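Tokens in:
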């Protein structure tokens, strides 16, 4: 097995200003495509030839990538593409010819233009009544293409009616929300005005409130639903037309890679840079989070201690209208793709980028800000922990250690960043605080470094096999953790969900097979049982060719298997205890992906169980079911899952405004009822607790060694994420958890209850109140 295989990572840092990309060299992308094809044939686990069958998959993937809803191309277009390219794309690519990719993309661009022209005419001339009994198909990735333009026009009238209907419903919801806010503001002003401060003080809040409302009304000129719908499609066209040949080749080769399996991927130079940033959690840039607002890049976050923060002039909500390198001329960035703006702000350590900015506090003015790029550490996704101390109301108090891990990150080149090292630091402090049990939270963890998954397993089990792998030849290898003794050997639970994948599944499966930890979560994890490695395409290209933009191929080279012999491919890791989850009815997981590799098994390795006796799962399941059946929060999930499943299976939406308003009203009433019921429960519980609720301490890699623990309530989002963020408009930041009993989200609270059961049934320490014991007051 390769020492540094990497699994699929979720792309989430594309909007961070990273480093400037130099002017693109004249890379021969036809040559790049040919070498990618040969690499796939020789390096992929399947060793599948790039033949006519793969050619057909490539074409279908490419068409789906461009037109995933099957609304821009007609069946006539598709038939034409298939007759020309279904069995010939392999020949073209292997002859260094990428003109079919460009041709299809150009036709796609033309079709989008035609649909926008149709949209303009229809929005102007067609009368949308919103009173018919017609419906529209929601998920169209498997739907047939419209057979010709006449059928396409009919489909698009339905699409536009649905678009307009959604905008009208959104306007109604906004108006209602604005009315509520105005009523709250008036009520607040009335209370302040009634305070005994004299008549002038009474009138002032009302006057201010009136001015604010009048000012807002004057400034706000809402666009019509028709204008917003058209604008959305025009933005799509702008985005499409901005793509250059390198972007088109990226789409095309990504479609080719996906024909082999869902996790084989061609990565352009920019995508490779972003992937490396996710793995290392650091970058060279200015340290600013960008977002698009009205087609202009806006500063939505500033990394604390980064170059922009130290320089001090760039502020939250400032808008960037131009970017220049050193003393060079400015490049206009309005209407530009966000990723291209990010690319221009990228650069080498010590170089200068100049930004032309409209300051948030004076939008009419323009200022030039020069920032010297430097290394920026991204803390938001690093491992962090909590120490939870349960209230007496739940029974004898427990100290639960909780480690949050969103990815298995690592610096593969210099080794300066390590998930395992970070978790060990946090765990060391939790152990010092004498925790009764540990929860490792892998929900939403899409994987990362296999090496880190193996090393991290070694913190919890002594030396032994962790994972097996099989290559295309059928050769089986395995990897072991090397610690002679577990760093932490206390009670342990791993929390997973449907999005826990790859390295997360390796860790969870190993701890389950060793009978080391209790696995709790959704019905299964993602089901990604494959190993990828990253191969630079330039390594396979001729010495004399330009390789500067050749990119990389992330290719599946092995399947991995549990030490007990089964694969996690397709099936994932099934937990010991299942919690109700809406994700179980969603189209998530390997089983829903195209071209997924099959499930199979290999012989088990020899390994020693940590606990000889099986966990008391029958009794724990009985206790869990009893709580879930009585817990309204989980019943909401069960009921909503049923409704969602019905909607997914139905896959249509009404084009009748009255029906949609009725559905929206029913959903709103249901949620308001749930909120009211929840608020009543929280109020009753708080009166009972009398401030003796959970005590939660927050641990980060910055404060883990501090003498005193820091209460979660005293921990700011800036301290937690390492980034200054623009405040929410409604001022309700951090209030979401307060609506739940104990201020703890339902799955987390139930995990704590399960840990109490686990300790009660597997240790001699008292964790539950006796039958004759009086409840805590």
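Residues out:
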């Amino acid at each position: 097995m390769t020492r540094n295989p990497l699994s699929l990572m979720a792309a989430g840092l594309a909007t961070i200003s990273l480093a400037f990309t130099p002017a693109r060299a004249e890379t021969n992308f036809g040559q790049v495509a040919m070498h990618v094809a040969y690499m796939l044939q020789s390096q992929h686990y399947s060793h599948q030839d790039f033949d006519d069958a793969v050619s057909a998959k490539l074409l279908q993937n490419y068409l789906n990538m461009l037109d995933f809803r099957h609304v821009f191309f007609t069946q006539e277009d598709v038939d034409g593409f298939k007759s020309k390219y279904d069995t010939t794309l392999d020949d073209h690519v292997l002859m260094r010819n990428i003109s079919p990719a460009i041709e299809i993309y150009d036709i796609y661009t033309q079709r989008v233009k035609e649909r926008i022209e149709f949209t303009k005419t229809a929005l102007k001339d067609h009368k949308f009544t919103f009173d018919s009994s017609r419906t529209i198909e929601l998920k169209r990735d498997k739907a047939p293409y419209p057979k010709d333009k006449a059928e396409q026009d009919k489909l698009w009238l339905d699409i536009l009616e649905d678009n307009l209907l959604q905008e009208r419903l959104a306007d109604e919801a906004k108006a209602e929300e604005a009315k509520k806010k105005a009523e709250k503001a008036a009520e607040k002003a009335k209370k302040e005005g009634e305070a005994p401060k004299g008549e002038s003080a009474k009138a002032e809040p009302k006057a201010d409130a009136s001015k604010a409302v009048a000012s807002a009304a004057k400034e706000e000129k809402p666009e019509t639903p028709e204008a917003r719908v058209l604008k959305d499609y025009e933005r799509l066209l702008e985005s499409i037309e901005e793509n250059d040949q390198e972007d088109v080749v990226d789409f095309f080769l990504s479609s080719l890679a996906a024909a082999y399996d869902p996790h084989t991927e061609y990565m352009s130079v920019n995508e490779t840079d972003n992937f490396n940033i996710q793995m290392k959690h650091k970058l060279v840039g200015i340290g600013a989070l960008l977002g698009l607002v009205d087609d202009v890049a806006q500063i939505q976050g500033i990394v604390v201690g980064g170059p922009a923060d130290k320089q001090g002039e760039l502020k939250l909500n400032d808008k960037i209208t131009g970017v220049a390198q050193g003393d060079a001329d400015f490049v206009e960035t309005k209407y530009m793709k966000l990723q291209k703006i990010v690319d221009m702000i990228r650069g080498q350590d010590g170089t200068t980028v100049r930004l032309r900015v409209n300051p948030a506090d004076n939008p009419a003015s323009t200022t030039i800000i020069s920032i010297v790029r430097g290394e920026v550490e991204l803390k938001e996704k690093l491992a962090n922990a909590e120490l939870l101390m349960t209230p007496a109301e739940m029974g004898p108090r427990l100290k639960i250690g909780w480690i949050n891990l969103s990815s298995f990150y690592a610096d593969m080149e210099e080794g300066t960043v390590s998930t395992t090292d970070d978790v060990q630091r946090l765990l060391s402090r939790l152990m010092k605080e004498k925790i009764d049990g540990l929860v490792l939270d892998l929900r939403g963890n899409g994987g990362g470094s296999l090496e880190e998954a193996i090393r991290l397993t070694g913190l919890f089990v002594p030396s032994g096999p962790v994972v097996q792998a099989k290559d295309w030849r059928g050769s089986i290898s395995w990897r072991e953790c090397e610690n002679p003794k577990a760093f932490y050997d206390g009670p342990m639970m791993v929390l997973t969900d449907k999005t826990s994948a790859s390295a997360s599944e390796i860790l969870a499966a190993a701890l389950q097979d060793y009978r080391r930890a209790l696995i709790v979560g959704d019905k299964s994890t993602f089901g990604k049982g494959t190993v990828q490695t990253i191969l630079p395409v330039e390594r396979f290209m001729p010495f004399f060719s330009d390789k500067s933009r050749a990119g990389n191929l992330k290719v599946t080279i092995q399947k991995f298997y549990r030490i007990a012999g089964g694969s996690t491919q397709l099936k994932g890791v099934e937990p010991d205890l299942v919690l109700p989850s809406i994700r179980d009815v969603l189209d998530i997981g390997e089983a829903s992906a195209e071209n997924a590799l099959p499930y199979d098994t290999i012989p088990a390795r020899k390994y020693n169980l940590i606990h000889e006796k099986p966990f008391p799962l029958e009794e724990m399941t009985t206790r869990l079911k009893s709580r879930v059946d009585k817990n309204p929060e989980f019943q909401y999930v069960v009921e909503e899952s049923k409704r969602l499943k019905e909607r997914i299976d139905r896959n249509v939406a009404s084009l009748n405004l009255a029906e949609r308003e009725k559905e929206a009203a029913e959903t709103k009433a249901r949620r308001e009822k749930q909120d009211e019921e929840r608020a009543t429960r929280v109020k009753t519980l708080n009166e009972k607790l009398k401030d003796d609720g959970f005590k939660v301490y927050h641990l980060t890699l910055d404060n883990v060694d501090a003498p005193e623990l820091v209460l979660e309530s005293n921990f700011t989002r800036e301290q937690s994420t390492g980034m200054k963020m623009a405040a929410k408009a409604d001022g309700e930041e951090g209030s979401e958890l307060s609506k739940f009993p104990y201020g703890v989200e339902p799955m987390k609270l139930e995990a704590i209850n399960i840990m109490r059961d686990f300790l009660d049934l597997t240790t001699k320490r008292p964790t539950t109140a006796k039958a004759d014991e009086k409840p805590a007051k």
